[in-house]
Amino acid sequence: MTVALATIAFAVLWFFHPFELGPPIAGLIGLVLLGTAFISCGLAASTLTENQVVAAMVTYGILVFFWFMTWNEAVGNEQLIRVLLLLSLFDHYYNFASGTVQTVDIAYFAVFLAFFLFASLRSLQSRAWRGIA
Amino acid sequence: MTAETEIDAEHLHKSFAGSVAVWDVSFHVARGEVVGFLGPNGAGKSTTIRMLTGVFPPSSGRASIAGHDVVRETIAARSQLGYLPERTPLYGDMSVARYLGFIAEMKDLPARDVTAAIRRAMGAAGIEHVAHRLVGNLSKGYRQRVGIAQAILGDPRVLILDEPTSGLDPEQVAEIRLIRSLGDERRTVILSSHILSEVEQICSRVIILARGRILAVDEPRRLEERLRPPPRLCGARQWPDLAALRGVESHPARDRLGGRRCPAGRRRDPESRRPRRARPRRPPRDRPGHRRAWLRAGRARSGGDDARGDLSPTGRRGIAGERRVRAIFAVTRRELASYFGSWTAYVLLAVYLVLSGYFFYSDLAFFVTFGAQNLATGLWRFVFIDYRLVTLLVMPLVTMRLFAEERKLGTIELLWTLPVRDYQLIAGSSSRPGSSFS
To answer: Which residues share a beta bridge with B181?
Structure first.
């Protein structure tokens, strides 16, 4: 719904005042990837528990961690910040939001997605040794 | 295993984190038999049943359903199976007909046969007159009948019912009669119970389990004859005196038990002088490769998985792909229907609109105050900068239901025994928030 509305809004605007289409398309790709990353994270959290509130809190915890991790740049040294920037979810999204598509950002989101989907699968299959609680 | 054997279990063991749940359970069930698992709570009935239905693999040993190994050909085995878990797996927000329609899709019944199959199952379970009522509004007895209807949907060769009468009033003879009518010459039934009289009424053979082992296997009438003097009360339930079972059909597991305590732990067999071996010293570890084979069977298509006649390899690939997509769409549709059937979706929609409106208003103010270059800049800021916060706040509220809800309802256990793979469940579940997002 989000992406559809945004696309329609940009299309209407473009119809009246044509502008370069590349950057908004890059932004929309970024938005889709970001949403997909959120969904995969939420899905993995929901496989862990039968309590929906716990599932939501775990998802918030993980996503906010990936958001806040580069905020306190003054504390870490330069190398640590460099590593954290590589891991930060939103720093990778900013590149899309500024209208550029970079392979490293796509790869990051692909790995993020694959990791959480794999975690979901493993969590479901953990019944083999954990049983059904 | 003879040609007539429909369910075959050989030396099944299961342990969880070092504690033994099932120890060396072996039995065979012939086609058309109705067999009861009898035992107290914690005897290993449900664990044995879950191994047979493919919920999880045995730590060691093997089992097959209708000739298909439950570990290596788990999808083929599940497609011959109807299963009613201990907690009746129902979605309260669906009507009975829609619920059965969903199960039919998950069982991959041919589309042209679905309506007739649902009608047959509802007729057999006696629930035609509640077809359009919400499952959540039905009485306990009717819910159980709906559970039985989903199990017999598609006429599976093997029917496994885990405590089908638990929670029902003793007077609910209609349900007992219904369960008794399920077995015929084509269909094999296993059911579990901790009430001897029920099993006597329904089953042609009884397997008595206690502490994860088989104590006795015999016809209920013969078991009853040996229960002299009359059964004593152990706890709240009636339990056979194990000394009286001494002459019952010999079984290696039963022989090893010697003079162990009665299942409820109240007294020991006075005649026995042999030392008791209540627990193996070391619980069986998962056999190397056993769990791997089960995981692999959940990913790759094994030879026995496609039970739709002899097609060319290309045709089989096409049908297998179609089956995968069909199951994924079925899960997505159910998720969407369930979501919009409750108030949660509307509350979330309101939260979403309020947050979006707030950010849109603030961006518009920014545009007016600071004079952004053009309207596209303002829209850009709204969609790509602020909107991620709305997504971050709303998305966990959308995804929190998915599998957490399935676990809470107990339906996850049923989904694990339907002929679909885990990744299809994941793809189907994630498509729902995905479709609302995109």
So the answer is: none
- Which pLDDT value is given to residue B308? 42
Listed residue (B438, B433, B395) closest to A59, CA to CA? B395
Nearest-CA distance A50 → chain B (Å): 4
Share of chain A above pLDDT 90, in %: 35
Residue B49's H or E segment, with its range, is helix B45-53
Which residues sit opposite B409 in a β-bridge? none
Check whether B272 has a pLDDT greater than 50. no
Residue A15 lies in a domain: no
Kindly state the tokens that stand for B77. 């085995």
Number of domain units in chain A: 1
Residue of A nearest to B56 (CA): A128
CA gyration radius for chain A? 18
**pTM of the shown model:** 0.78
B229: tokens are: 């003097």
Which structural domain, as residue segments, surrounds residue A113?
A: 21-130
For residues B386 and B408, give the distance between their C-alpha atoms in angstroms, rounded to a whole number. 35
Residue B238 phi, psi dihedral angles, 5° rounding: -80, 130
- Which amino acid is it at B151? A
- Alpha-carbon distance of B208 to B196, in angstroms, equals 10
**Listing from the earlier edge strand, what are the strands of the sheet with B5-16?**
B19-30, B5-16, B60-65, B68-69
Neighbours of B186 (CB within 10 A): 10
Q: What is the mean pLDDT of the segment spanning B102-115?
A: 91
Which residues fall within 8 angstroms of residue B241, CB to CB, at 6 or more apart? Answer: B227, B229, B231, B232, B262
Asked if the structure places residue A3 within a domain, the reply is no
Q: pLDDT grade, residue B267 (50/70/90)? A: very low
The residue type of B332 is: T
Asked if B194 contacts B39 with a C-beta cutoff of 8 angstroms, the reply is yes
Report whether B421 contacts B321 (CB < 8 A): no
CA pair distance A60, A52, nearest whole angstrom: 12
Q: Do B50 and A38 touch (CB under 8 A)?
A: no
Residue A63 lies in a domain: yes
Q: Answer for the pair B84, B94: CB distance below 8 angstroms, yes or no.
A: no
- Three-state DSSP class for residue B378: helix
B437 and A1 within 8 Å at the Cβ level: the answer is yes
Is the sign of the CA dihedral B418, B420, B426, B429 positive or negative?
negative
Question: For position B312, what pLDDT does the model report?
Answer: 46
Interface ipTM:
0.81
Using CB atoms and an 8 Å cut-off, which of residues 18-77 of chain A contact chain B? 19, 23-24, 27, 30-32, 34-36, 38-43, 45-47, 49-56, 59-60, 63-64, 67
Which one-letter DSSP state was computed for residue B276? P
| A34 within a domain of the structure (yes/no) | yes
